[in-house]
Amino acid sequence: MPNRDHWSSSLGFVLAAAGSAIGLGNLWKFPYITYHNDGGAFVLVYLGCILVVGLPIMIAEIMIGRKAQTSPVGAMRSVVGRAWAPVGGLGVLSGFVLLGFYSLVAGWSLRSFVQCLGWSFGGFDPAVDLGADFGAMASNGGLQAFLGLLFMGLTTAVVAGGVKNGIERVARILLPVLFGILAVLLINSFRMSGSGEALRFIFEPDFGRLQGRGILEALGHAFFTLSLGMGAMITYGSYMSKRDSIVKAAGVVVLLDTLIALFATIIMFTVIFSQPGMREQIGKSTAGMLFITLPSLFYTGVPLGNVLAPLFYMLVAFAALTSTVSLLEVVVSYFIDEHGVSRLRASLLCGIAIYGLTILCGISLGSVDGISNFEIFEGKAGLFNTLDHLVANWLLPVGGLLTTLAAGWFIPKAVSRAELLDRDTRFFHYGAWSFFVRFVSPLAVGTILFFVIFKGADFS
Ligand code: TRP
Question: Among 226, 227, 331, 333, which is best to mutate for testing ligand 1, by the most ligand atoms less than 8 A from CB?
Answer without folding.
Answer: 227
